[in-house]
Design a protein that fits this description.
The structure holds 2 protein chains of 2 kinds.
Chain A: E1 8-17, E2 20-30, E3 36-39, H1 46-53, E4 61-66, E5 69-70, H2 76-81, E6 84-87, H3 99-111, H4 126-135, H5 151-164, E7 169-173, H6 181-197, E8 201-205, H7 209-215, E9 218-223, E10 226-231, H8 233-237, H9 240-247
Parallel strand pairs in A: 3-8, 3-9, 6-7, 7-8
Antiparallel strand pairs in A: 1-2, 1-4, 4-5, 9-10
Chain B: H1 8-23, H2 28-49, H3 58-72, H4 79-101, H5 106-126, H6 128-131, E1 137-138, H7 151-178, H8 180-186, H9 192-196, H10 202-228, E2 230-231, H11 238-252, H12 256-276, H13 281-295, H14 299-316, H15 328-332
Antiparallel strand pairs in B: 1-2
Classes of the chains: A alpha/beta, B mainly alpha.
Chain lengths: 252, 334
């Protein structure tokens, strides 16, 4: 039973890398259906937070719960299986395969089929995987090797693979970094629409304030190993301290 | 369904292999060893598809051969039972060893495999009263489905058993590699992080393929011992493991057809080079592999594929390179 009102809840997280404090008593809660952007200076610990939430790194103190269930010490593969998927700053794809094969591998992982006489290309999920590629605007490159595709296309396929796991929560690390400015908003339009259709809540680390302002429902400002502010984009992005310390502009 | 043109030559070669005992019996001994080694090399090939090289797979070759030899000396001395015993012994050993080695990758994986095989080799050498030490064990000729055969007919039967198993296991490995479980196993080579984030343990995925690869080596080993009528510790020696990797690269690393093409080429070169240039046959083999690595990294199967593509482009008259090939795996590795 889910006793927690939050989809994901981090309490009192602490982790250090040598002398660097990436998280020092962090509390952050994510509400289902509310896309959260995490902003902050480079090296502040934003990606570390995603790593902790997906089990890649274990915090020295604190607790992470997903739908009220403690996942702090779980392996990434187990966390993935209960509904948290991850897309990466540098797309994590199977480089010797085509886009649709990458999707079918994800479908294979999800289904857990062990029959060695089924051809992966004939999986019943093929239509669903093509639909996901179509949703992220990559259906036309389905049969191309992923190494031949642009960074933007690879990022979208990385996200589509994560969505193939039918997660409730998708964690994305800078989904528009390395993408041409002209493509950024196009990609985010597709992405937010796809997430809404798939009923997936998203947490994304982002440096582009235009993206944050337009596509996040909530914003958390991560600085000095803590969440300094959390609120709507309008509240947070106009806060004088955020403008001065994170955005780097003049306070009006 | 149309028969793919690329498969015409391999089909002719298989038909020719089937006719060897009738039309070219002088090649039968060389080719029976080539087929049996080819089955074992298939095991190494499976691992190469996950990006891992083992310098210790002779362990499974040897353990199955000794399992078969022990069984052949018992009342259960039928060829079918021997092959099954070899398969089970090597698969179980593969599971046990796999639990350890699947934690490691690259050079550590290769050397740990080597270490396990050399431990087994030492046991075979030292436990003389059980294994016959360096002299090995003589393996009596088994029955086939309960029927006893003289040497000549038995060798013919064994040849066709080896050919049949080579085809069956080759087909099975192609199906396995194309299946979801086989594809997940192969992604260990390209992205373990993504695999973990798809809810799959890369270690478990690797173990599954490792057990298959051990079982294949085992089938090759038990057949070889049956053909030779004797098993010695050399079955598990590191040179045998190196030979398997050598043949896999020669045929086309990661290619199922390449395992057999490489094995046949290797045995033919070895036999005839040894006959005509007794002192330098290893040098000739080494030079042969060097040429393959430098000029045809896709191995013998890669050479065949590129010649086939060139011929097809020539006959189509376009002279253009084909585009839109969906996956290189489909072309180079079948």
């Amino acid at each position: 039973m889910n006793a927690s009102p939050y989809l994901l809840e981090a309490r009192d997280l602490q982790i250090r890398f040598g002398g660097v404090v990436a998280a020092d008593g962090v509390d952050l809660a994510i509400t289902e259906g509310r896309n959260l952007a995490i902003i902050g200076p480079n090296g502040a610990g934003k990606t570390t937070f995603l790593n902790i939430c997906t089990g890649w790194i274990k915090p020295s103190r604190g607790r992470v719960a997903f739908r009220g269930r403690d996942i702090t010490r779980m392996a990434p593969r187990k966390i993935c299986r209960i509904g948290i998927a991850r897309a990466f700053q540098h797309p994590q794809l199977f480089t010797e395969h085509t886009a649709i094969e990458n999707m079918l591998i994800a479908a294979s992982a999800r289904s857990g089929r062990q029959n060695p006489f089924i051809d992966m290309h004939n999986l019943p999920e093929r239509g669903e995987m093509m639909h996901l590629l179509d949703m992220v605007g990559c259906a036309d490159v389905a049969d191309r090797m992923v190494v031949e595709l642009s960074e933007g296309q690879r990022k979208l396929i990385d996200i589509a693979i994560a969505l193939a796991m039918k997660p409730a929560l998708l964690l994305m690390d800078e989904p528009t970094s390395g993408v041409a400015s002209a493509e950024k908003f196009q990609i985010m339009d597709i992405l937010v629409k796809t997430l809404a259709e798939a009923k997936v809540t998203a947490v994304f680390v982002e440096h582009d304030m235009g993206i944050v302002e337009n596509y996040a429902d909530e914003v958390a400002v991560w600085s000095g190993g803590k969440v300094q502010f959390k609120g709507t984009p309008q509240e947070v992005l106009q806060h004088p301290e955020v403008i001065r310390d994170v955005i780097g502009g003049e306070v009006a | 369904m149309t028969f793919p043109r690329r498969a015409i030559l391999p089909a002719i070669l298989v038909a020719a292999l089937a006719l060897v005992p009738i039309l070219a019996p002088f090649l039968q001994v060389v080719l029976i060893f080539a087929l049996m080694k080819g089955i074992a090399v298939l095991g190494v090939t499976v691992l190469l598809r996950a990006g891992q090289v083992s310098f210790g797979h002779a362990l499974f070759f040897g353990i199955a051969a000794y399992a078969g030899a022990f069984l052949a000396a018992s009342p259960f001395d039928d060829l079918v039972l021997l092959v099954l015993a070899g398969l089970v012994a090597s698969a179980v050993t593969g599971l046990v060893v796999g639990l350890f080695v699947a934690r490691y990758r690259g050079i550590f994986f290769a050397m740990l495999n080597l270490a396990f095989s050399m431990i087994f080799w030492s046991i075979l050498e030292k436990f003389y009263y059980l294994t016959g030490g360096a002299d090995g064990l003589r393996q009596p000729r088994p029955t086939v489905l309960g029927m006893a055969f003289e040497r000549g007919p038995f060798e013919d039967i064994l040849y066709y058993v080896a050919l049949g198993l080579a085809l069956l296991l080759g087909w099975f490995v192609i199906r396995f590699l194309g299946s979801p479980i086989g594809q997940l196993f192969q992604t260990v080579k390209t992205n373990e992080t993504r695999l973990e984030y798809l809810g799959i343990s890369p270690r478990v995925a690797l173990i599954k393929g490792y057990v298959l690869s051990a079982a294949l080596c085992g089938v090759g080993g038990v057949l070889m011992a049956t053909a030779q009528g004797i098993v010695t510790p050399s079955y598990a020696y590191w040179v045998r493991s190196g030979e398997m990797v050598f043949i896999a690269v020669l045929g086309g690393a990661g290619s199922v057809a390449g395992a057999f093409a490489g094995s046949i080429a290797y045995e033919l070169v070895r036999t005839y080079a040894a006959a005509f240039a007794g002192d330098i046959w290893q040098l000739l083999l080494g030079a042969f592999l060097l040429v393959i690595i430098l000029f045809a990294p896709g191995g013998l199967v890669g050479i065949y594929n590129s010649l086939f593509d060139r011929a097809r482009r020539g006959t189509s008259g376009s002279g253009k390179r084909e585009t839109g090939v969906p996956a290189k795996s489909a072309e180079v590795r079948s």
